[in-house]
Design goal:
- The chain folds into two domains: 295 residues, Rossmann fold (3-Layer(aba) Sandwich); 26 residues.
- It has eleven helices and 14 strands.
- The protein has a seven-stranded parallel beta sheet with strand order 3-2-1-4-6-7-12, sandwiched between helices.
- Helix 1 crosses helix 7, helix 3 runs parallel beside helix 4 and helix 4 packs parallel to helix 5.
- The longest helix has 28 residues.
- 47% of the residues are buried.
Length: 339
Amino acid sequence: MSGIKLRPLEQQVAVVAGGSSGIGRETALRLAAAGTKVVVAARNEAGLSTLVREIEDAGGEAVYAVCDVSDRAKVECVAELAVAKFGRIDTWVAVAAVVVYADFEHTTPEEFRRLMEVNFMGQVHGFQVALPHLRRAGGGALVSVGSGETVISMPLNSAYAASKHAVEGMLDALRRELQAAGTPISVTSIKPAAINTPFFNNGRNKMDVKPKGAPPFYDPAVVAECVLFAATHPVRDLYAGGAAKLMKVTQHLAPRLADVVLAKFGIPMEQTKDAATDTDGNLYEPSGDARVQGDFGKQALPFSPYTWLATHPTARRLLWAGALGGLGTRWAARARSAA
């Protein structure tokens, strides 16, 4: 994707699909603080309304559209609103997702289908709708917020992991098509580790206890900063949290080891000790939860050194240069002492 030039954030119009809570809400707030005109879309109108008010109170510009991303017509309305209000679209951020915590045999075909409609087709709809607008704007960025389960599947998450794997396949093909055509549109896949958002509270849950992500947890800001970087830098992949990168490496280099470890520890890592309460989740109706942070704030890491280096290439190059210089100095000193 070299050669693609993306506008500075203060000159952009960005759509955040799945923006009423969690990662999407934090992303919208940070984009607006950077001067981006923001269009936020989700099913939770109350959450969207408070988000736009918060952005405007801080001096930013934003509008919202109520939208279920599985509905193509509603997604088209989001794009029409963005163009009518702000004139164009530069970046489309796909965040919206739902989850079912259940073993494979107790996940119904309807639940598999619903997760594919939201998590996969929601991103398909968004990017297909966005592409003509990005072309008219002279280029832009498509940013997919996926999951560590894009590359490694956790037990009890077969439907969720399948939907995220499907997204990654679509992104790879789309990216190559755009490159082949010389289209100046970047396609970025962001793969977060476990993030402290209300996502776990709001999923459909068939366990006896409340679910959680596999630790370590990271703050939503770690993912939001990846989105801001992808909106201005045509990068292929970003891992939000070093744990997500470790998951990817383990799956690709030692898949049998991943099988053994996750068979033994995967389910306990996804379970709290609290009894399950609202088990239906937000699969078909919005939860009304508009928080950025979830229930694991005491466990969440506010910063990821790995991700910070990935989004600060100059610092990364200086670190490598320093490391190589240090190795060179040690080698030269040993050579002199041996002589």
